[in-house]
């Protein structure tokens, strides 16, 4: 067993771990001393072991070709003053060509103009057959009208479902004028982008005008944010609810309301019975009104709850209050009236006061109804 005096003597005599060689023990106590304050570690590092610099004392002017102003060539971005810091090298300004005077520029421009003045115009090759034609590509017009992507419209053409002026088109890239050419898909006319078609479920109490001088709620209040001026197709009396169409297509609106085309309108009426079995026959045979006979095209009882009846009446006439007057003349005044269909456009589950844009198929069906 070693004595404590042996340990101290080995530390004092400059053994491998003590003394001036930089070991753990100092002359005062060998291993007994701690590394904290008072042991003078930085002052006792000898020349036998190189001193390790602290991070803040590190130098970058090392290696061949390095100077105190910057690092040697080939060091990393941090040493050149990159994202991690380091000294930055001053950038040498590059050489720039002297600016030419304006007179010299004018002479060059005039010389080039004279050089190409007598030469003929070069005609560039066409990128595809028919490029010199006017108009737009057919698939682009169909895609803009809402028939899908251009690739989907090309498939419609390949399937021989597209017509132009009554002729079935099979070739891709056909150019058309949407304002002049009549384009049909599956027999239905394609409306151009400038025409707009809407269906409004008119609530009760709304006047069927676009403006009302008396300040009552009207159809124009539902389309105030539209840039294009719209107008209504036909009318509904103030207390009648249901489908009313709005558009800026004048010819379509005119034909939909013209007696020549006989577009059918369907109504649901709430009446109080009991009603006779031959009420439908009376309406179909015609009811004498003040302005002549009025005939229904179709009549049926939809629902009966006690004496309350919900009946459906379809007719193609458009005289004022015609459904109310026909049922009142037959002895059954109408308590509530709703138009549920205007030609092929149905009310469905559209909520009261909601405005919706008609689909391309619905617009095509409307145009087919009036031979457009």
Question: What's this entry about, in short?
Answer:
The protein has helices spanning 4-12, 102-115, 138-144, 150-158, 250-257, 279-285, 322-329, 360-369, and strands at 136-137, 162-164, 167-168, 175-176, 183-185, 188-189, 197-202, 231-233, 241-247, 265-272, 287-289, 292-294, 298-305, 308-315, 336-342, 345-346, 355-357. With 372 residues, the protein is an alpha+beta fold.
Write structural notes for this entry.
- The protein is of the alpha+beta class and 372 residues long.
- 19% of the residues lie in helices and 19% in strands.
- Strands 7, 8, 9, 10, 13, 14, 15, 16 and 17 form a 9-stranded mixed β-sheet that branches.
- Helix 3 (138-144) crosses helix 4.
- The termini are far apart.
- The relative contact order is 0.09.
- Mean pLDDT is 76; it is low at 1-30, 32-38 and 72-84.
- Its EC number is 5.4.99.-.
- InterPro entries: PsdUridine_synth_cat_dom_sf, PsdUridine_synth_RsuA/RluA, PsdUridine_synth_RsuA/RluB/E/F, PsdUridine_synth_RsuA/RluB_CS, RsuA_PseudoU_synthase, S4_RNA-bd, S4_RNA-bd_sf.
- Pfam families: PseudoU_synth_2, S4.
Attribute tags:
Alpha-Beta Plaits, disordered N terminus, 4-stranded antiparallel beta sheet, Structural Genomics Hypothetical 15.5 Kd Protein In mrcA-pckA Intergenic Region, Chain A, 19% helix, alpha+beta, 372 residues, Pseudouridine synthase
